[in-house]
Amino acid sequence: MAVDDPARFHRMCRQFRWLAIFMVCSVGALLALAPVVFLLRGEGRPVILLLREMVWATPACLYLFAVWSIGSALGQLAKGRLIQPTLSDALRRVGLALGFGGLLSVFGITNLMRLMGDERSGWAYFDVPGMTLGMIGGALFLLGRVLDQATRLQAEMDEMI
Fold first, then answer.
1. What's the rounded Cα separation, in Å, for the pair 142 and 147?
2. What is the Cα Rg of the chain in Å?
3. Which residue from 90, 78, 82 is spatially nearest to 14, judged by alpha carbons?
4. Nearest Cα to 97, choosing from 118, 123, 71?
5. Is 1 exposed, middle or buried (CB count within 10 Å of its CB: 0-12, 13-18, 19+)?
6. With helix as H, strand as E and coil as C, how does 12-77 read?
7. Dihedral-angle region of residue 80 (phi above 0 means left; psi in -120 to 50 means alpha; beta otherwise)
């Protein structure tokens, strides 16, 4: 089988899409079950604790959206959609999700926790993985825009010829 075999590429895209679906569904189910378990245990726990846990899980939801977007893009590629428009859309969506997830993880969560009465929270949380994901997200978003601009320039060059 040749390295540039399109059938192999499409098969790998389909496999990765199903891996992304499995990850999003399994992790999403665990995130959705956490409030249910909290409510079933009861034991007179204040509801503010449930709200804090839900706020704490918000960046994970954005990261799962990024994984879902990657799986969706690879599913479109497996169906034969053109790589360039699919890639630019996916880069922008994944970049925004990772960027906002990272920003929320570093700055938003701690301040929301402070508003909910958590005295231990500071103004910013030194979360190196969150910072890294935020930076990577910003870079991916910019790369998506660069790819869009390259597509427009290529179309303009094609018109000249």
1. 9
2. 20
3. 78
4. 71
5. exposed
6. HHHHHHHHHHHHHHHHHHHHHHHHHHHHHHCCCCCHHHHHHHHHHCHHHHHHHHHHHHHHHHHHHH
7. left
Cα 26 → chain centroid: 15
Q: How far apart are CA 24 and CA 97, in angstroms?
A: 14
pLDDT digits (tens, 9 = 90+) for 8-41: 999 999 999 999 999 999 999 999 998 888 778 7
Q: pLDDT tens, 92-139? A: 999 999 999 999 988 888 888 888 877 776 666 777 888 899 999 999
Question: How many alpha carbons lie under 13 Å from residue 14 in its C-beta half-sphere?
Answer: 9
CB 133 within 8 A of CB 95: no
Q: Distance of CA 69 to CAs 52, 54, 62, 78, 92, Å?
A: 27, 22, 11, 14, 10
With tokens 């991916």, the residue in question is 140
pTM for this model (two decimals): 0.85
- Other C-beta atoms closer than 10 Å to the C-beta of 25 total 12
Would you say 91 and 144 are in contact if contact means Cβ atoms under 8 Å apart? yes
**Cα dihedral sign, 130-135-137-10:** negative
